[in-house]
Write a structure and sequence with these properties.
mainly alpha, elongated, 10 helices
């Protein structure tokens, strides 16, 4: 490093436009793994996802002189990535359709059979509420639990999978996800809620098996 604070977008952009190799190394170290992970949601295999990440870095180098700081550097980077990944996904016959708000409203976040429905006084109450976990931190650290989480995320509808990957796996903010994917905040929130509910349900099943073993 050359002593510059690359966490400051203005400093970073100035260094990038000056073709500062350290600035590009900073971005590569910080985002390349995330790029591959997000790209993987759009394309059929890891090798293609890595190619998408490489194409994104080339696009960043070619486009940095036109970047005007109207968005954060992080948002700009992921928007480029998502656009390239979407295009490559279409080429590879794999797309990620995003449901409309109306379509999302039709899908329950939790299986309706888990609620009481017949008695008007108890309708909507849990038949079997979520059970507390004895040691959730240790459970998450368990390799089998991590495998269950990954398997559940991989099996989510594509739009939910992308959103939960960006929010909960990579730690992007809601606004960053909305800007990168060009979806509304309401759609982002519903997609994330649906995805988290399904992961939570899968973890309940997994933990029931752990306790029963």
């Amino acid at each position: 490093m050359d002593g510059l604070d690359y966490s400051d977008d203005a400093v970073l952009v100035k260094a990038l436009t000056a073709r500062d190799a350290n600035a590009f190394s900073y971005l590569l170290d910080r985002y390349n793994g995330s790029f591959v992970r997000v790209a993987r949601q759009y394309v059929p295999n890891q090798a293609v996802a890595e190619e998408v990440a490489q194409e994104t870095w080339l696009a960043v180098i070619e486009g940095i002189d036109r970047f005007e700081l109207r968005a954060s550097v992080k948002t700009w980077l992921f928007r480029i990535l998502v656009n390239i990944a979407r295009a490559r996904g279409v080429k590879e016959n794999r797309t990620v359709p995003f449901a409309s708000t109306a379509e999302l409203a039709e899908e329950p976040a939790v299986d309706p059979h888990r609620f009481r429905r017949l008695n008007p006084r108890t309708r909507g109450h849990w038949k079997r509420p979520p059970q507390p976990w004895d040691d959730p931190e240790q459970l998450v650290l368990d390799g089998e639990t991590l495998d269950a989480i990954r398997t559940t995320i991989d099996g989510l509808p594509p739009d939910q999978r992308v959103v939960i990957t960006m929010r909960d796996v990579l730690g992007l903010s809601a606004q960053e996800v909305c800007d990168s994917l060009e979806v509304s905040d309401s759609n982002q929130r519903v997609l994330l809620h649906r995805a988290r509910s399904k992961v939570r349900t899968a973890l309940e099943r997994h933990y029931d098996q752990v306790r029963g073993s």
